[in-house]
Design goal:
binds ligand BES; binds zinc ion; 20% strand; alpha/beta; 482 residues; six-stranded mixed sheet; aminopeptidase; nine-stranded mixed sheet; Aminopeptidase
């Protein structure tokens, strides 16, 4: 890590200082600050009210202090974003070493320390090049110090996992191809504390029965990969699985996409990256739950050997699939992924996550992921997790009527109804056809939220959506089993 967070370190008076205030803390401290800086209270409160994201710079001699407001919100995302945005914009001016002063956060520091730490680290995340080394000295209050230090250590771990996910999504597909994805997983497994098994050849995937993944890969000169990530604590309270769509680039295949903004399709492994990041976070926090991640990775390319509309392909489950549209490739990868997972072990829940449909973007925009589940308990645990992580989800139905759209005349199922109605739902119905009825399963369509125009780059870039959500889901499963 090139951003160091230091506690109880020696600091110099001239180091720039960033002081954080909630509205309540500001109101209680403003008299003292006004006196200290010899500014009248009226002028100071006129310039700064500690609204969320508001900032002011105070200076005297060699000293520079920036005040940053956190408003009165408890929202993880809003606090994380306010801190990240400020750090992102001002980091060049803060230099190689600065102090973040949390002394004035007297009221609920333990509740807001996680998004603050995440915001600081994400603020230094860079899309290009290697981030310069920065030492951030945290000045924390004495009250509950031990507890706060532990919270800081944990928040750092989660933020590091999130930034790994962001890096996987932001890095172009010629740099992280399906083999590169497996390399990344292997390279990071030790640091984060999970086991990785990777399959990297067409023969290997064939032996595993991943025929639908191989069909997506048919037109590619890049070999596919299949990675299994396993984290097993000493006494697991439960056992869950995550499956992530790892399409490193989606041209659409023979049903080729338009060229406008096709470069965004490097984000089509956002589900797989969220699975990797979530398992990294769960493992580095040593949560008492066993988690297995399944990541089928391939690109979806156009070639003489590509799968074509009208073709019938095999799948891991034994069900045959008629291809109507080769651009509906993610569901093919997930079909094999969920089938493989359900046959490997009796998981208490299987959750898949994928940048799956433009339809989910049309429905929920860039604000929420679409949630589908065959089980109320699983859906409720994800919804609760989403309330904590502040990554919105909205449940859509899986009514039987929608299955009509995937009935085929000549195969067990088809991969697209052929009409553009309820596309996110019919995609979910397709995946459901590969999940055993008794398995508690949920599907998250994150096409609108994994990659976005968020102010941290000129073009769209990774959001890290899903890492915190899946980690929090694991915590909810633990709670539910206690
Ligand atoms: N990768 C896309 C979905 C997507 C859309 C991801 C926008 C990120 C942002 C997926 O494979 C796809 O092409 N879906 C098609 C399916 C259709 C052809 C049945 C879609 O949603 O248009
Ligand atoms: Zn596609
Ligand atoms: Zn896709």
């Amino acid at each position: 890590m090139s951003t160091n967070i230091l506690i109880d370190s020696v600091v110099s008076w001239e180091m720039p200082r960033l002081q954080l205030y909630t509205k309540q803390d500001w109101e209680e401290n403003v008299d003292e600050i006004a006196k200290e800086w010899k500014i009248t209270k009226a002028i100071l409160t006129n310039d700064f009210k500690a609204e969320l994201g508001e900032s002011i710079v105070l200076r005297r001699k060699d000293q520079k202090v920036t005040l940053l407001g956190l408003g009165d919100t408890k929202s993880f995302k809003k606090i994380e974003d306010a801190v990240r945005s400020h750090v992102f914009k001002s980091k060049d001016k803060m230099g190689k070493a600065y102090i973040i002063d949390l002394h004035c956060l007297t009221h609920k520091l333990h509740k807001i320390i996680d998004p603050i730490i995440s915001g600081i680290l994400l603020g230094h995340y860079m899309l290009k090049g290697i981030a310069p080394q920065v030492d951030i000295h945290l000045d924390i209050p004495k009250k509950n110090k031990g507890k706060i230090i532990l919270a800081i250590e944990d928040a750092k771990k989660v933020a590091e996992a999130k930034m790994w996910t962001m890096y996987l999504v932001d890095t172009p597909s010629n740099i992280i191809d399906p083999q590169g994805f497996a390399d990344e997983i292997e390279a990071k497994s030790n640091d984060f504390g999970f086991d990785a098994t990777t399959f990297r050849s067409r023969e290997g995937l064939k032996t595993l029965g991943l025929h639908a993944v191989l069909a997506v890969n048919a037109g590619s000169s890049n070999l596919p990969s299949f990675s299994i990530l396993e984290y097993t604590p000493k006494k697991p309270i439960a056992n869950i699985a995550f499956v992530g769509k790892g399409v490193t680039f989606d041209t659409g295949g023979v049903s080729i996409k338009g060229s406008q903004n096709m470069h965004w399709m490097k984000c089509d492994m956002g589900g797989a990256a969220a699975v990797a990041g979530a398992i990294a976070a769960i493992a580095s926090l040593k949560l008492p739950i066993a988690v297995t991640g399944f990541i089928p990775a391939t690109d979806n390319m156009v070639d003489g050997s590509s799968v074509k509309p009208g073709d019938i392909i095999q799948s891991h489950s034994g069900k045959t699939i008629e291809i109507i549209d080769t651009d509906a490739e993610g569901r093919l990868c997930l079909a094999d992924g969920v089938s493989f997972a359900s046959k490997m072990k009796n998981f208490e829940h299987i959750v898949d996550i994928a940048t799956l449909t433009g339809s989910s973007v049309m429905t929920l925009g860039y604000e929420a992921g679409a949630l589908f589940s065959n089980n109320d308990e699983t859906a409720e645990l994800i919804t609760k997790a989403s309330d904590v992580s502040d990554e919105k989800v909205w449940q859509l139905p899986l009514w039987d009527e929608y299955a009509k759209g995937i009935q085929s005349d000549i195969a067990d199922v088809k991969n697209y109804p052929g009409y553009p109605a309820a596309g996110a739902i019919t995609a979910a119905k397709f995946i459901q056809a590969f999940v055993p009825e008794k398995t508690k399963w949920a599907h998250l369509d994150i096409a609108g939220v994994a990659f976005g125009a968020n102010g941290y780059g000129k073009d769209r870039n990774a959001t890290g959506y899903g890492v915190h959500l899946l980690m929090e889901f694991a915590k909810q499963v633990i709670k539910n089993n206690q």
